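Lab manual, section 2.4: Encoding a predicted structure.

Procedure: take the sequence of the chain (145 residues), apply the prediction step described in section 2.3, and record the output as structure tokens. A sample record is shown.
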Amino acid sequence: MASKRKEVVSAAKEPPKKVPKDDEPRPAHLQHVYLVTLVESNPYERARSQTVGMYSTKELAISNARAAFEAHSNGFFRNGKFTEPDIFEQTVDNSKKMGNQGVVFMQRDMEGDEVRVSLEQVALDKAYRKDGGGTADSSSFAYEV
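Recorded output:
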């Protein structure tokens, strides 16, 4: 007769994952993402803001910013061009010269109605700092997990 033994299976303990400090290099593919935000406003209501998405490359972010702007421009921006720029007080297309943050597309009419799509480069796994970033000093503190 075979003896019945309980087999004890122990879970292998993984070492705790190291959280990189702000000044430590991170793998290139995990350093940042691009956040695209759409804002619609007019003089009579509070501005409505929505996140279009977060993207791994600036090119992908600008492509989706263009698609969101076309969808919300009431037909005044098609195929990458303003169809009737003269009816607007201001139009902006920074898609070809876009830095890591700022307004990609914007249109504002004479009455103050505005549609704006912005891009912002956001660091991943960045520790919170009371002063908003920069280097740590005695007046700032950081929360690290």
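Check your result against the sample. The two ends are 53 Å apart (CA to CA).
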